[in-house]
Design a protein that fits this description.
mainly alpha
């Protein structure tokens, strides 16, 4: 039961993972937005600008959260999706379109073919830190998002079937993610290979500048960079508003929508954590906190998967028994109707014989 000590432990782990995961995401986004503002508008991407970006993000995601799921959160999400589609289509059309589609097909096949191998790869006899810096780090980052994303999607998906949920939450976004990375990643690789831009050198100056360096080598660079900056901010806001809502819900025993004061407290907390991590150690501090926060919940996710299987099995068994009872009731009704019809026919035959 969620009110028992086990439920309390799970809630605490979920709250910690969510708060740190969202705060570090705000930190990463702040670094990239600041770098973009410096490259496009000449602003200095130092701590003052980063703190201003965090403050603006705080105001936006709190306004969205306090307005409710059906108003601010929904409107921002729809606007964000439309703007992301515009940027995706612009890069697809202005970039190497043929190479992008070839990249999508090739990488999708390679991913499906090597999924198990790459998932279990650890490089134990190599001094390279690539697996730890990329695969394990990103897994930890996604795990830290699992509690609030799962809770929020469950809240807005009430009434949907499991099939609709799997298609709308797992399959469709995964394919869209493949295509998104093919468009941007394929364009970047094509530019690097064919000498259109030196993105490797840009990466040496910081990962946050690579996207804008790529845009500088494409048509309409200012438009693409401005859309990307707006998207970076809104992508975080649409994630943070739902995260704050879930954090407030998980930290209260009250049913329904959590009180505004609790939402505000968590909103302030997320912003303060992000600012503190940026001032304390920048990128290294953000990566370290992600890994620390995700480890406890990674263990709990195994239990969650077992629990999900048990719930689905119980639901399937209940529905099967209910269907069997309905079939038995229908069979019994048909049998009674047939018996009554036979009795009527027999009475009619006896009356005919008497006549």
């Amino acid at each position: 039961h969620h009110r028992g000590w086990i439920g309390r432990v799970v809630n605490i782990a979920a709250v910690v993972a969510t708060a740190i995961g969202v705060a570090t995401t705000l930190g990463f986004g702040t670094i990239q937005i600041a770098a973009g503002l410096e490259r496009v508008f000449g602003l200095h991407a130092g701590a003052p600008l980063q703190l201003v970006i965090i403050a603006v993000a705080f105001v936006l995601y709190m306004a969205s959260t306090l307005s409710g799921v059906d108003r601010g959160v929904k409107w921002l999400s729809n606007f964000n999706l439309a703007l992301a589609a515009v940027l995706l289509l612009l890069v697809l059309v202005l970039g190497p379109t043929g190479a992008i589609f070839n990249t999508f097909t090739t990488t999708l096949g390679s991913y499906l073919n090597q999924l198990v191998t790459m998932s279990l790869r650890m490089s134990p006899f190599s001094s390279s830190t690539w697996v730890a810096d990329w695969t394990i780090f990103y897994w930890a980052w996604w795990i830290s998002w699992a509690p609030f994303v799962g809770s929020f999607i469950a809240r807005i998906s009430r009434g949907r079937s499991v099939r609709e949920f799997v298609i709308g939450v797992v399959l469709a976004p995964t394919l869209l993610g493949f295509f998104w990375f093919s468009v941007f990643g394929g364009t970047a690789i094509w530019m690097q290979i064919f000498g259109q831009a030196d993105l490797v050198q840009a990466l040496g100056n910081g990962y946050e500048t690579v996207l804008f360096t790529m845009f500088d080598s494409m048509p309409l660079p200012l438009l693409l960079s401005c859309i990307a900056l707006v998207l970076l901010m809104i992508f975080f806001v649409t994630s943070a508003d739902s995260a704050v809502l879930v954090l407030a819900s998980m930290s209260t025993d009250e049913a329904g929508d959590p009180p505004p004061k609790r939402k505000l407290a968590w909103g302030v907390g997320v912003a303060l954590i992000a600012g503190a991590l940026l001032l304390a150690g920048g990128l290294d501090a953000l990566q370290g906190m992600i890994t620390i926060a995700a480890l406890p919940f990674a263990l709990l996710m195994v239990l969650v998967m077992v629990s999900l299987y048990r719930v689905l099995d119980q639901e399937y068994t209940r529905e099967r028994r209910q269907a069997q009872r309905q079939r038995h009731m229908i069979d019994a009704w048909i049998a009674r109707e047939m018996a009554a019809q036979e009795e009527t026919q027999a009475e009619a035959a006896r009356a005919h014989d008497q006549d």
